[in-house]
Every structure is written in structure tokens, then in C-alpha cells.
Amino acid sequence: MTLVDSDFWGSPQGGLRESIQEMEPEMDGDFSISGFLDSERRKDLLRFTTAGSVDDGKSTLIGRLLYDSRNVYEDHIRAVTVAHPGQGRSSIDFAQLTDGLRAEREQGITIDVAYRYFSTERRKFIIADTPGHEQYTRNMATGASTADLAIILIDARKGILTQSRRHVYIASLLGIRRLVAAINKMDLVGFSAEVFHRIEREFRELVRQVGNGRSGETEVEAIPVSALEGDNVVAASARMPWYRGPALLRHLEEAPAAYPSGLS
Ligand SMILES: Nc1nc2c(ncn2[C@@H]2O[C@H](COP(=O)(O)OP(=O)(O)OP(=O)(O)O)[C@@H](O)[C@H]2O)c(=O)[nH]1
Ligand SMILES: [Mg+2]
């Protein structure tokens, strides 16, 4: 008996794909499995992590990113939709799209690292959403240890906090050379350009200090966002016309990946 039954598997290049193509007439609508697998195989992979102080909006940002890029199942959306009977409306708790543990949902904080996979037309992504609470800093380091890029969330009302500094330092120690400063909750500071530019300056200075003055080695992109309301996450925000850079998803799609297509 051979380990590989060549009648079933055929050649490594063609056999499985031909078997799938034979099954395709039974598939629904226009969806083609072999076409889908081919296009997924050609995409490269970016692994990134979130970081930052507790409650800065990391899980909300990832929930919003998955939702606006249509990477969430409808039953999952239904499960995290909260009704507001007095106001006659409902809203989605975006952090709960990411926070999976019951203790996380009850306490409204992230404890464990949540890994999420998603893809767009251009690229595949693996996200590690990590906790901001000081007690779980070890989990942040675990999530960051496999990342090519880190999104450091900063609450625009609070600016850079001790835990934000600690996470920039850990990301640097782990060799992450691409950082995004996502200056979040811009809706709570009147979408102020001044607030954004001040925090961006402080962040760049922090990265320079952490890198012992060698800021050139670490690439920093600062993006003003409202994770809750979706500004500059997937779609560019009309409420911050003074910002001319990319929305977060476009930056993630264009940042150099560690694994070119075909190797991931
Ligand atoms: N107004 C406003 N509120 C936000 C925004 N982003 C997040 N929030 C709120 O901030 C709170 C904390 O959000 P989370 O996403 O849980 O924060 P986190 O950084 O994941 O918290 P930990 O994982 O526990 O560190 C929630 O009540 C969110 O609704 C934003 O852009 N605007
Ligand atoms: Mg969280």
C-alpha cells in the first residue's frame, strides 16, 4: 500500500482541483470553489496585532473592521445587537464581535488574545486582538509575538498613557517595525485636527526614544479614527476633511507583508 493514493489525489498540482471542479455543478449560484481557492492562494498574508491602554477601543476597532469589510456572519451580528427600547433603536456592540469569553462580555474588557482571520480582495489577514489591562500584559506580548505590524490605539481624550508606552516598548523588543497609531474616539473631541496632530507628534517622539533615536527603522502611520462610528476604518471619513492619509484598511492592504503570495 502506498501512503498517497495517486488515483484519488492525482498530481499534487492538479488532482484535488479537478476533483473539486467535478463537484462544482452542485454548488449554489455563481460561487466557484476552485476560483475562490485560486484567488485566496494568490493573496499574501499580513499578521497584525492591536495594543494600547485599557478601554482605548481595540476590540471595537477590530469588530468595526470586520463588520464594515463584510467579514462577519449575520447570526453573529444578531447575537451582539443591543436593543434600546426607550429610544426605539438598536445598536451593535462591536467589541463583542471580538471579545469571545463570557468573563470578557460581563466585564467589558479583553482578557485573552482573540485571533481572527479575514480577507479582502487584495490580501489575507490574521489579527491578534490583545488586552490593554496591565494585569494581562503577558497576553499582549503573546499576541504581538507573531505580528508584522501593530496598531497602537490611543484614546484622543486621554493621549498617550503609561500602558501605551509599555506596549510600544514591547512591540519594539519583539522586532515589530511597522506601527499604526490609531488615534481613536475622534467623535469625542469634535474631530479636532489639533488634538490629532499633538498626539501624533508625541507618538513619533515616543517611538524615537524607544528606538534610542533610530526612528528611521520603525515606520509609523498615524490615523484619526472613530472605531465606534466607523470613521477612517474601512471608509474614509467625511467628518475629518483635514486628514489626507489612507483609512486603516487601505493602509493594512498596502503595508509590506512578511509572506509574499504563494508562501503563506
Ligand atoms: N465614543 C466612542 N466610544 C468608543 C470608540 N471606540 C470604543 N469606544 C467605547 O470604549 C469602550 C471600550 O471599548 P473596547 O473596544 O472594549 O476597548 P478595548 O481597548 O478593547 O479594551 P480592553 O481590551 O479591555 O483593553 C466601549 O464602551 C466602546 O463602546 C469610539 O471611537 N468612540
Ligand atoms: Mg478589548
CATH A-level architecture:
3-Layer(aba) Sandwich
Domain module count? 1
Strand content: 15-25%
Q: Helix amount, in percent?
A: 25-40%
Named once each, the bound ligands are: guanosine-5'-triphosphate, magnesium ion
Mean pLDDT, to the nearest integer, reads 87
Strand order of the largest sheet: 4-5-1-6-7-8
- Which series of helices and strands comes N to C? HHHEHHEEHHEEHEHEHEH
Spans where pLDDT lies below 50 across 5 or more residues = 1-14
By CATH reckoning, the class would read Alpha Beta
Q: According to CATH, what is the topology?
A: Rossmann fold
Count of alpha/pi helices: 11
Give an overview in words.
36% of the residues lie in helices and 19% in strands. It contains eleven helices and eight strands. It has a six-stranded mixed beta sheet with strand order 4-5-1-6-7-8, sandwiched between helices. A two-stranded antiparallel ribbon has the order 2-3. A hairpin with a 3-residue loop joins strand 4 and strand 5. With 264 residues, it is of the alpha/beta class. The protein has helices spanning 6-9, 15-23, 33-42, 58-68, 74-79, 94-98, 102-107, 137-144, 162-173, 193-210, 248-254, and strands at 44-52, 81-84, 89-92, 114-119, 123-129, 149-155, 178-184, 219-224. The relative contact order is 0.15. It has a single domain, classed as 3-Layer(aba) Sandwich (Rossmann fold). It is globular. Bound molecules: guanosine-5'-triphosphate and magnesium ion. Magnesium ion is lined by residues 58-59, 95, 99, 110.
